Automatic annotation (TrEMBL):
It comes from Mesonia aestuariivivens. It catalyses: (R)-pantoate + beta-alanine + ATP = (R)-pantothenate + AMP + diphosphate + H(+). The keyword Membrane does not apply. Its EC number is 6.3.2.1. The reaction proceeds by a bi uni uni bi ping pong mechanism. It is found in: Cytoplasm. This is Pantothenate synthetase. (R)-pantoate binds at Q61, Q155. Catalyzes the condensation of pantoate with beta-alanine in an ATP-dependent reaction via a pantoyl-adenylate intermediate.
Length: 284
């Protein structure tokens, strides 16, 4: 495993690979790695000759200083986990100044409607921060393919839009959500939950499965309302921020009825104490 903190060293290694016409994949992460990340590396392995895993807690995508401060940073464990599972990975684990220099600020992007829904509504500036780091990572690594989990489905659509806007030549690949035994979507933030809390947070997936079952049997707005009520009345651990049923392409929230030609997904954001969890599911 090769570990680089500087762009120059990393880029020299990548130039060598490109000269040999190797397909380079990028798995961007913020560390605190878990099986979900390994599943992204696994997918990358199927279709790439060389894989770069970036580990960088990106400050500009946090709209809340305490969330950034509490975000788990476990670089040594992350490297050990990757080393144990894969022999030939290239790791890029830069410091903030390697990416941002003296000015830790976001560029502004026009992601259109995609950025105004759900995460965009509740996390001001989040997607500009995500766009900023990914544009820079794509420029540094020049990957042929980049891999993202569908847990952050809105992010996945934003990244596809980013690549269009910036005309970067990278194929963006969405990968299935990796889940705990009780269905809770795997997330680095789960490291801040106890085993009991993880058990209780499985309620999010229960609700998504319920919504999937109900979708199409009655008006979608009633399904949404019912799920919101379940959150309020069936448990007192999770604090719901939003439950939304939206067009899976535009992310516009559904109005009455639905168009059978379109794909829809249900999306949830909820707090487990001060840990913010998100998840989603395809409904049709
Ligand atoms: O999904 C994440 O972990 C982050 O948003 C990403 C894509 C690594 C950018 O910092």
């Amino acid at each position: 495993m090769q570990v680089y903190q500087d762009k120059q060293g990393l880029q020299a290694a990548i130039v060598g690979l490109k000269k040999k016409s190797k397909i380079v994949g990028l798995v961007p992460t913020m560390g605190a790695l878990h099986e979900g990340h390994l599943s992204l590396v696994e997918q990358a392995h199927q279709v790439c000759d060389a894989i770069v895993v970036s580990i960088f807690v990106n400050p500009t995508q946090f709209n809340n200083a305490s969330d950034l401060e509490k975000y788990p940073r476990t670089l040594e464990d992350d490297l050990a986990l990757l080393e144990k599972n894969y022999k030939n990975l290239i790791i890029f684990a830069p410091q903030e100044n390697e990416i941002y220099g003296e000015e830790i600020t976001s560029e502004k992007f026009n992601f259109g409607n995609l950025a105004f829904q759900m995460e965009g509504k509740f996390r001001d500036g989040h997607f500009d921060g995500v766009g900023t780091i990914l544009k820079r990572l794509f420029d540094i690594v020049r990957p042929d393919k980049a891999f993202f989990g569908e847990k952050d489905f809105q992010q996945l659509l934003i990244v596809k839009k980013l690549v269009q806007l910036t005309q970067q030549e990278v194929e963006v690949i969405g990968c299935p959500i990796s889940r705990e035994n009780n269905g809770l979507a795997r997330s680095s933030r789960n490291k801040r939950l106890t085993a009991t809390e993880i058990e209780k947070a499985g309620f999010i997936y229960e609700i998504l499965k319920k919504a999937e079952k109900k979708f199409g049997t009655k008006d979608a707005l009633l399904v949404k309302q019912e799920m919101e009520e379940h959150f309020k009345n069936s448990q007192d651990f999770l604090d719901l921020e939003y439950f939304e049923i939206s067009d899976a392409e535009t992310l516009k929230p559904i109005s009455e009825g639905f168009d059978h030609r379109k794909k829809y997904r249900a999306f949830v954001a909820a707090y487990a104490n001060d840990v913010r969890l998100i998840d989603n599911i395809a409904l049709n």
